[in-house]
Amino acid sequence: MEQQLEASILGMWVFLVTEVMFFGGLFMAYIVYRSWYPDAWAHSSNMLNVPLGALNTGVLICSSLTMVLAVRSAQVGSRMGQVVNLILTIVFGSTFLVVKYFEYREKFEHHLVPGPNWDPHHMVNGVLHPVALPLGSQLYFSLYFMMTGIHAAHMVVGIVLMLIMLRMAWKGRFTPDYYNQLEVSGLYWHFVDIVWIFLFPLLYLLGFNYKG
Amino acid sequence: MAYSEERHSYLDAPYGLKSWLLTKDHKRIAMLYLISITIFFALGGFFAAGIRAELLTPKGDLLTPDLYNKFFSMHGVIMVFFFLVPSIPATLGNFFMPIMIGTKDLAFPRVNLISWYLYVIGGLIGVSVLAMGGIDTGWTFYTPYSTIGSTTNVTFAIVGVFVAGFSSILTGFNFIVTVHRMRAPGMTWFRLPLFVWANYATSLVMILGTPVVAITLVMVAAERSLHLGIFDPKLGGDPVLFQHLFWFYSHPAVYIMILPGMGVMSELVAAMSRKQIFGYSFVAASSLAIAVLGFLVWGHHLFLSSQSIYAGMVFSIITMLVAVPSAVKTFNWAATMYKGSISWESPTYWIIGFMGLFLVGGLTGLFLASMGLDIHMHDTYFVVAHFHYIMVGGAIMAYMGGLHFWWPKMTGKLYNETLAKISAILVFIGFNLTFGPQFIVGYLGMPRRYHTYPDEFQFWNIASTLGAGVLGAGYMLAFIYLVYSIFKGEQASSNPWGAKGLEWTTTSPPPTFNFDKDPIVDEPAYNYNPGGKGVHVGH
Amino acid sequence: MSIPFFPPSASTVSTEMDLLYFFIVAVCAFFIVLVVALVVFFAIKYKRKHPDEVGADIHGSLALELLWTAIPFVLSMVMFGWGATLFFKLSRPPADSMEIVVVGKQWMWKIQHPEGVREINELHVPIGVNIRISLGSEDVIHDFFMPAFRVKIDAVPGKITTLWFQATQAGTYHIFCSQYCGTKHSGMVGQVIAMEPQDYAAWLSGGRANGTPVEMGRKLFTDHQCSTCHKEDKSGRGPSLVGVAGNPVQLADGRTVVADDNYLRESIVNSQAKVVQGFQPIMPTFQGQISEENLMQLIAYIKSLKPATGEKK
User: Which of A23, B388, C116, C217 suits a disulfide with C297, CB 3.0-4.6 Å?
Assistant: First the structure.
């Protein structure tokens, strides 16, 4: 059993390393283009909704807390503790996704989605913004959507995982001697949280003080 | 575990198709992979045949330009992603890694089965892309052609490659955890067979590199279908950024393809010479060195892409460095044969073939690594010859050698020795005739991926196509007698080669849980001279 | 049917490149013969004599490991050094090079001589003259390859790349596109015709010159209103471009960069990226409005703007 737990945990860490490499490609593109287009980067970042982003950051941090508490509940044999904390984790995760939906919708309305929707003067309600977004802004927003989009996809997978864990916890499958899947799922959840901790400053805070 | 008088091996118990398709037995999964990989090899070979047939004449008289471009693209995608990358690890690795370290199965048997299903799904997606007309971007998907130029089903092909890549990641991840956590009592790291070291090093590359090509191809797909232009120069993007990201994986990928083959070589040379591998720890360390250094050389594909000269110099020098561990291994294998007891059975033919061809392939890399010379040779047939010498002359020869060597163990049957020797010779001769002339025509200036070419290059192209015919015949012969042996072959003993290694201590084929009794290891690998006073330096 | 073994050697650099090539061939041949001979020799000499025989009890030798690590290392470092030096040489066109503008597009090469003569898929050059090719692409990545001169470089959309050569032997040689670019990749070929200087002069004067790159660039400069702000008397809202090309420029953010071809190109298509010190960031961007060929003609014009008196370098 001990060997199995250790193997599962090592396995999840190995998998998380692959995830770091996966997101890594996008971070590399971000770094290269930011050095090429610092102005476009700051200007575009300034168009993002920092309060909503900050809210989401807080929500995810709370979800990681409840996740840890769920694992702790398993360790001390509290079935109710596991269930409550898992439900909270799922609620927080879902809140994150709902807020993201509203953010994306706003971007769409402001013509900041690269492709056919894009308008460098980002006309809103018939009003043209006087200064066109500089060259490189579309690159920024392409990366914004890809990075947050793939992150959101990982959140969805995480929530599905948590639902499965919830069902198992409800049935009392986790005991102080055996809670492998819960611990390993927790690792995955924390990882998705940490990716966001990187995305938030790089995407939202970068242009916070930009005066254009 | 008690057995009845009639011994059941993993092959016949339990029985039925469902028991195979839902198996968790690493040996059955290995055989499932073997069958599917062989199908893709044949498909990739079909496209190769089309390419070589067209290139018999300077004019484009067999295939239209678009069709030819699809042929070489499909050949590359299938051979790299659906054949070479999984080949040795998913078949021989899956089968023998647990046995060689003395355990019942891999760390995550269900994940292993999932990896096979992902491979099959990825492969089926690839085949559907074929049915929908194929892709014409080359296996390298260079932007902007792959994002805004090509009108073929690039996005769907990328999905297929992505899914197959995930299969690769799961295999690597399974191997790493298995080697770390499941070795039998007494099986220390430095008693591991070198095949295990090689697959371990390969797995490190698989898990670190594959995700990067995955995200890179996702970016290409996103640019094509969602217009999220990241490599589009009109938006200020850099098409060369794609090349950096792509080769960051695809260079280490070639080490994914050759390292397991080197592992097979170590096993075969030791067994066929009945001798301890010369310089065991150096060979093990070389596998790791190649894996690490392999991640630092990707820019040698970009010398002429507008990459900075200084970056190019760094990549060039490290590329020279990565050649050194390969040289070390080759010398160690040769030295193993010194004062060995060399059997002239068929695996030895594959060993000698590998040594010669891998040597040429590896050494010809030096031309390309030398930046100045690469100015002339980049994107010519010299490059094509170089990598085929390593991938086919090296990796596939090692794969064939390993298949032959372990065939009695995996199937319980012996194949026809004489035909096997003939096949090895045909493959060796055919291979050299196919790719040797390509060095010459490459230096002459014939570019890659050319559908038509100047008349003066025809002689070498004819030679190359003839060679391809011989090569194909060699492979087909092997396929025939190997399949035949399953039905009509002589029964094999548990150790037909008289070799050392845990796999030879169990029956041929092994029982489902590999060993009757859990092994306890108390000797080094390749211990052909137990108690002898050997020349022990650097071990 | 002819059986060629080696490409013609027609440039100042081809000899050196071939020398490096033969050096590596020799090293490879040596090791291939050595190892293969050893392996075959061992296989014969130590052939198993009876079924239970095993090999000798030899584990390794530190001395040998060091030897066969050091020797390949040293040899490969020589190859690296020689190759890097050659690469450097081929990346730095001599200052007196004659510039020819080449633009690749699916699936042809458009060539323009400084005197204005244009060619498609054919490049006439004089021998004994340093020639520098400024290469651009209108669409996807191509590569301009002349095997007889042993030179090539990728043509990357969004950038200007450079190669240079000096032809030594008159003759007609291949031009190949060497980066897969779609349907007619293998049709994107042509000929480079190296001629004695007097023959080249004759060919040049016989050609229809419809404006040199500099003249066409001047016209574009006016058509696109560049002259409105970039006045030569420095009275405009933009910096004067006289004597700018090839010299250091002080930027608004404090950096100093050299005004090479790619800087000039970037300043046209992404004018906000590197604003000159003392000027406002008000220049419009021309991204997507000017073709690669026209961009290169504009750059040729800007490079021709030298100060009236004295050599300002």
Answer: C217
